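Saturday, quiet lab. Running sequence design on the structure tokens for the scaffold JK sent over.
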């Protein structure tokens, strides 16, 4: 059996040799004799369950795993982009271990190259995990549990020295690269006129208020938001806190998958979560209490200089505009139009409720 792995370019490359080498990172004596690959699942064609038979060392080892990658050899855009997969796997490997991250799948092997990346991780379903869906929003108790989990994670990195020069998440680090790719490479593509108009003409765009369809005004508001955010604390966010990336363990603990972890200002993660994970009517009823709960738990977990509720409420309402732009521009390869529309409308409704444009001086 091989003693090193080569990142799989095709689905078929996930064979007994590759799985054996991947598992030997954790279990040096294991040998896999057979791999059966299940169907690709999810919206992107980039992950599937495998079941395995062991030739050696398989006692008390799992019988199934999840494999995820961008598989460029399939020549299918729906497997996702190389940079996005690399960002996700760096989040698992290099960023989440530096903070008090909520529950997540244990991974056995991660390989990242310029063109292809892949992960072999535990299969959470046999362990009793329950996954959420974009059309099944959270209850108040579930939302409070996630806010507590985010507060614990955020507090562990709240204005931390590791974001500075020479720090573990400072300039030149992989966490810093994650942020650069999202903020400086991905986000600017939204505002190319042809790109913007192509998304406005989709159902999600036409379902939004006209003021949010206007490119010039949206670009101005976006710039004002990011100019305002440095007044808030820097922390580490999950980076894609929508319902499709949330689950609870068998014991009811909040869990996260599909990380886009990066150093970021706290209102980005909290506004994105509340606007995407709550029904519009529930969000209107619960958001003040949930934000207050988040601030209380930040203090309990040791964060210093936690903002007052009034200050946090202002920045949260400004940041309501953030998911308006990100969901308007979300690729139809990454999520189906119904989910893009649901989240764009939830966000736009909140931005209207809170007059995010007015708060940003527009």
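Result came back. Writing it out in full:
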């Amino acid at each position: 059996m091989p003693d090193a792995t080569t990142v799989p370019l095709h689905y078929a490359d996930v064979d007994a040799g590759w799985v054996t080498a991947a598992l030997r990172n954790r279990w040096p004596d294991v040998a896999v004799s057979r791999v059966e690959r299940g169907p690709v699942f999810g919206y992107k064609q980039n992950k599937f369950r495998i079941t395995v038979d062991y030739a050696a060392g398989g006692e008390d080892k799992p019988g199934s795993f999840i494999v995820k990658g961008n598989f460029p050899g399939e020549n299918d855009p729906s497997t996702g982009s190389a940079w996005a997969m690399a960002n996700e796997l760096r989040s698992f490997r290099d960023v989440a271990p530096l903070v008090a991250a909520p529950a997540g799948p244990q991974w056995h092997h991660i390989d990242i190259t310029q063109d292809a990346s892949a992960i072999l991780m535990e299969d959470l379903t046999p362990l009793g995990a329950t996954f959420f869906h974009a059309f099944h929003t959270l209850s108040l108790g579930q939302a409070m549990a996630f806010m507590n989990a985010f507060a614990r994670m955020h507090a562990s990195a709240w204005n931390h020295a590791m974001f500075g020069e020479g720090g573990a998440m400072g300039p030149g680090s992989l966490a810093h690269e994650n942020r650069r790719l999202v903020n400086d490479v991905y986000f600017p593509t939204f505002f190319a006129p042809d790109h913007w108009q192509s998304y406005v003409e989709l159902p999600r765009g036409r379902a939004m208020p006209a003021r949010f369809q206007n490119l010039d005004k949206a670009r101005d508001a976006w710039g004002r938001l990011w100019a305002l955010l440095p007044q808030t604390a820097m922390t580490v966010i999950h980076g894609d806190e929508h319902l499709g990336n949330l689950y609870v363990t068998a014991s009811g603990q909040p869990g996260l998958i599909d990380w886009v972890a990066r150093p970021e200002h706290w209102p980005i993660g909290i506004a994105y979560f509340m606007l995407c994970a709550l029904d519009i009517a529930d969000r209107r009823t619960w958001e003040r209490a949930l934000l207050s709960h988040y601030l209380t738990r930040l203090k309990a977990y040791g964060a210093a200089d936690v903002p007052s509720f009034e200050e946090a409420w202002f920045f949260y309402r400004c940041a309501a505009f953030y998911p308006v732009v990100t969901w308007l521009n979300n690729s139809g390869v990454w999520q189906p139009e119904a989910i893009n529309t649901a989240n764009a409308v939830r966000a736009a409704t909140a931005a209207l409720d809170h007059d995010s444009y007015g708060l940003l001086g527009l």
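Notes for JK: Strands lie at 31-40, 47-56, 64-69, 107-112, 117-122, 130-131, 234-237, 246-248, 254-256, 262-265. The mean pLDDT is 95. Ask whether to fix the surface positions before the next round.
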